[in-house]
Amino acid sequence: MAKVHWRLLTEKEKLWAHAFWAKFKIDGPKSNINKASPVLRNVAKGKHIPEKGIQWVLEQVQISPFGKTDGLSWLKAHCTHKAASYTNGWSTMFSFTIWAIWYFRNQLVHNKHHSSVFEVKDFVYKKVGEFIQALNVPSTRNSLITIHVGWTTPSSGFIKLNTDGLALGNPGLVGAGGVFKDELGRWIPGFSHHVGHTTSLATEIWVIWDGLSIALSKGFNKLVLETDSKTAMALIDKCNCDHHSLGTLVTDCRLLLGHIPDLRIKHIYREANAVADQLAKKGAKSTTHFVMYNSCPTDLGHILYSDTVGNLFPRIVIPV
After folding, report:
1. Rounded-to-integer distance, Cα 86 and Cα 177, Å
2. How many C-beta atoms lie closer than 10 Å to residue 284's C-beta?
């Protein structure tokens, strides 16, 4: 009924609206409204409501009449109103109610789930409660500190392998890249890998597998492996992956790790992984499956130089 009211208000010049009012006379001796169905009778008799506009009054302050303003202005007025008529504030309650209506409408359309008014009400109060509780969690902003990070050279006699994966969507088109450098920061080999379509975590595991395979083929027996993916590092290090979707790949990585006599695995921040990051981007955009770079690509020269001279970059972190 509300939809018909709204259409009568916004489409009053259209033929169907004229026909409606011509058919159903509300007042006077020739009124025939009582012959209409209950729904149409209520629509006709409620004509004055949309014409006047439904006035929302909170704490004696009238705001945004429904039907007399555009939708965005109406939403903004309610979402920013400061009335405390409700325990958690009208603007909060209104915002979550609108969201709940949209959410349960999707549940009905896509999942054929019919919801009662009470279910919607309980959902709104639950979400508002969670929102208020989240607002009351003490902020860690004041405890944040700035540190300076950058690529560091490995110990004497070691080769350092930096790896990174890049996903253009998750899942999506992904690329992987890695670079080996010696104790002076000199480029040994580097590589980029166009993995295809998969998840970002799968890419991080793939690039570690790539790097370890190359390290073994070149006889690198003293290796430092650095990745900016804590999840990938945890999976390879100690996670039980028997039933994990990447379990086979993780197991292969562990087998490769076991063939390197002196191996150290470290987590680093992305600011210290810039060369590998750029190689991963090359892999994502490449039309070639795998590319080995025996020397540094020209467009990465300035990043390699920045690593070699020990440039540092600021990063905001929570102190441990």
Report:
1. 54
2. 21
CB 284 within 8 A of CB 175: yes
Extended beta strands in the chain, E state: 54-58, 61-66, 145-149, 159-169, 172-181, 187-198, 222-227, 262-267, 290-293, 313-317
Low-confidence ranges of the chain (pLDDT < 70): 1-10, 12, 20-71, 83-88, 138-142
**pLDDT score for 28:** 46
Q: Tell me: domain 148-317, CATH 3.30.420.10, correct?
A: yes
Q: How far apart are CA 31 and CA 21, in angstroms?
A: 11
Residue 250: its H or E element: helix 247-257
DSSP structure string for 148-166: EE---PPPTT-EEEEEEEE
pLDDT at 8: 64
**Given this model, what pLDDT does residue 261 score?**
96
Q: Is the distance from CB of 159 to CB of 217 less than 8 angstroms? A: no
Q: Please report, for the chain, the start and end positions of each structural domain, with discontinuous segments joined by +.
A: 1-52, 62-137, 148-317
Q: What is the pLDDT of residue 85?
A: 52
- Cα–Cα separations (whole angstroms), residue 200 to 115, 126, 166, 170, 176: 37, 33, 7, 6, 10
pTM above 0.70, yes or no: no
Cα separations (Å) of 69 from 4, 42, 74, 110, 124? 18, 24, 6, 31, 26
Does residue 314 come out as left (phi exceeding 0), alpha (psi in the -120 to 50 range) or beta? beta
Tell me, what's the pLDDT at 175? 94
Q: What is the C-alpha to C-alpha distance for residues 165 and 210, in angstroms, rounded to an integer?
A: 11
Q: Is 46 exposed, middle or buried (CB count within 10 Å of its CB: 0-12, 13-18, 19+)?
A: middle
Q: What angle do helix axes 230-237 and 200-217 make, rounded to 10 degrees?
A: 60
